[in-house]
Write a structure and sequence with these properties.
The chain is built from 8 helices and no strands. With 214 residues, the chain is mainly α. It has one domain. Helix 1 runs antiparallel to helix 3. The mean pLDDT is 92.
């Protein structure tokens, strides 16, 4: 939570809590700021605090998912590109085979697309039974190819998780901000009515955390 939000929430809490003080409450009640109104403020404040904590957790989960994805990505991507490079070289004299393996450009593809292209590459490669025998001579065994494919599929799941976490963090932020706006509107009304009720008692306004010009 940013320092700005923390300061605002602290000031809102002080305003609501101090409005119940014995010296202030009867005066505020003359303008409709009674216990029921302040209870409403307490509820809004507690909801805001809960949503702030939810947003913090969702944002932390989002960062963790991206950290996990990128920590895993480099090794998986390196293995895939090395295998792809070797396969391109070993199949260069068979254009029909290369066409079936679909060596599409990889450099400009976004994460989700190149991962999917990689999975499809392994699927195509593992169907080329005769060519697999040639690959095995260079330690590109079926077991190794299946393992690299599974690692790409696992990476795809991690990528999907980052998108889910990102969406949940954005929604949590939206809900938090919506509730903070509601709290701000409530406190602005409370301040306005308090300024009317306490216009002849500026020192009491200051107990609510509202500075009054002398």
């Amino acid at each position: 939570m940013s320092k700005t939000i923390t300061k605002k929430v602290d000031s809102y809490r002080a305003l609501i809590v101090n409005s119940r003080k014995e010296a202030v409450a009867p005066l505020l009640a003359t303008q409709g700021i009674d216990a029921a109104f302040l209870d409403e403020g307490d509820t809004i404040l507690q909801d805001a605090m809960r949503l702030i904590e939810v947003q913090k957790k969702e944002y932390q989960d989002e960062r963790l998912s991206f950290d996990t994805f990128f920590a895993t990505k480099d090794g998986v991507e390196k293995a895939f590109l090395n295998t792809r490079k070797a396969v391109i070289q070993l199949s260069k004299n068979d254009p029909d085979l290369q066409d079936r393996l679909r060596f599409s450009p990889m450099s400009k593809l976004p994460h989700g697309d190149w991962i999917q292209a990689g999975v499809e590459f392994y699927d195509s490669l593992l169907r080329e039974t005769a060519f697999l025998e040639r690959l095995a001579r260079f330690n590109l065994t079926v077991d190794r190819l299946n393992r690299e494919k599974q690692e790409l599929e696992a990476l795809r799941e991690l990528r999907t998780r980052t998108l889910v976490e990102q969406g949940e963090a954005q929604e949590a932020t939206r809900l938090r901000n919506q509730k903070l706006e509601e709290l701000e509107d409530y406190c602005n009304l409370l301040k306005t009515m308090a300024s009317i009720a306490l216009q002849d008692r500026p020192q009491l306004m200051e107990t609510l955390g509202v500075m009054v010009r002398s």
